[in-house]
Structure formats: C-alpha cells, structure tokens
C-alpha cells in the first residue's frame, strides 16, 4: 500500500514548485536550477506538468515509499522530466542519462 498522502497542501506545494521552476527556466542566469536533476536536460515548462515525456514533474530525492515523512519537505523536491521520474521509480537516479546542454544553449 502506498505511503503517499494526497492533500490540498501537497497539491499547492506541487503547483508552487512547478511555477518556481518555470520562473527559473525563463532567466538564462538561473535556468541551470530548473533542469531535470536526473538527466540534466532542460524541461519543457510550456506543457502542463505530467502531460508529456519532457514535461515537468516533482520528484522526491528520497522516495516517499521509504521516507514518507519527507513527502512534503521542499528540501526533498527536485525538478524532473515526467519520463525520467517515471523510469527512476523509487530507485537511485542514474545521473547523466542525457547529453549535457551545450554552452551556447544557456
């Protein structure tokens, strides 16, 4: 049985985290803070969260299944692609799944 708890507060935090990533992505000086923490590639913030493989999803550094007390802890939140987060599951992230962004991108 899942240890994940769905509340209005959790949804508010998800929305707020997505919006903060979108703001960071819009500024080339802070864009590096909004990329997928798993593959380090840029996230498509134009798509609604969780709707495409490259769209945003909130990932938990420490999986909720193992650390339910950290589910709503913002220090445990990471920006991730929907696909990277789904592929990771609750296992360790295999960092560097994609190519790093070229210097001219930023």
UniProtKB/TrEMBL annotation:
Domain of life of the native organism: Bacteria
Entries under InterPro entries matching the protein: HNH (IPR002711)
Pfam families per record: HNH (PF01844)
Stretches for region Disordered: 84-106
Stretches assigned to coiled coil: none
Every HNH domain range: 39-90
MF GO annotations: endonuclease activity; nucleic acid binding; zinc ion binding
Listed name of the protein: HNH domain-containing protein
Gene source species: Microbacterium hydrocarbonoxydans
Lineage: Bacteria, Bacillati, Actinomycetota, Actinomycetes, Micrococcales
